Amino acid sequence: MPPRRRPPRPGALTELPPLLIVRKILLLQTIYYVCATALVLFTSLVAGTAFSLDLIFSWGSVRGDTTVGWMLGLVWMLNSFICVIFLLLIVSRSKLIPDFALTIHFIHLLIVYFYTRSIPRNLLWWSLQLASAALMTFAGIWICQRRELQPISFGALLGGGGSSADSGGGTRAGENGESATLLNAAEEDLENGFASVSRGRGRGRNRDGGGGEFEMMPIKESDESST
Question: What is the DSSP string of 58-104?
Fold first, then answer.
């Protein structure tokens, strides 16, 4: 007998092959930095400050004592909210969202470490990363679950909404016609039943004679007179 195969364990490796997982992570990480660069560049031009890579890859730029630091914090939170849309389009599975969201922020931590050659020591930067990861995770799970729970439209799969509506209208018209036919047949049966009952009563009266009227027979008084 051939050996039995154990069922695969639930997880990301059973949902997607490893090479596809790596491709999705690289694609999401690229989109994460492209959106962040575009937002930071636009904000720098509006604020009139010089743009540099330190605004993106340096943990020292996110500070609570400067306006630029708070502005960068809001930009990174907006960037996480935008990336939720790409998580929906690329991952599309609610139970895989936490893995990809945390992986994006972990890779960002490694890039910041190699860029600055030091571990981030700014409390605001760590709080920003936790808030960004939480927003991306919970918002991604919520929007993916809403997509997974949407009802499947079989009419669109079988031939479009218009044809299903036409067929539904034809079915309703057929049902209304059938119900009207059945109602007319029931009324005719009821009338025939009353007619048959009346005919039966008429036949009974004819059998008795006199149209159903009975005559009273006189009582003979011969016995009383004899006594």
Answer: -GGG--SSSHHHHHHHHHHHHHHHHHHHHHHHHT--GGGHHHHHHHH
pTM exceeding the 0.90 threshold for the entire prediction:
no
Token pair in block for residue 156: 């669109």
Q: Residue 133 and residue 187: Cα distance in Å, rounded?
A: 72
Give the contacts of 88 (CB within 8 A, at least 6 positions apart).
Answer: 140, 143, 144, 147
Cα-to-chain-centroid distance, residue 173: 31
Residue 201 has pLDDT above 60, yes or no: no
CA pseudo-torsion sign 199, 204, 205, 209: positive
Owner of token pair 């990861």: 133
Q: CA–CA separation, 192 vs 198, rounded Å? A: 10
Q: Token pair of 193, please?
A: 């039943």
In order of 187, 198, 203, the CA distances from 192 in angstroms are 9, 10, 16
pLDDT value at residue 167:
47
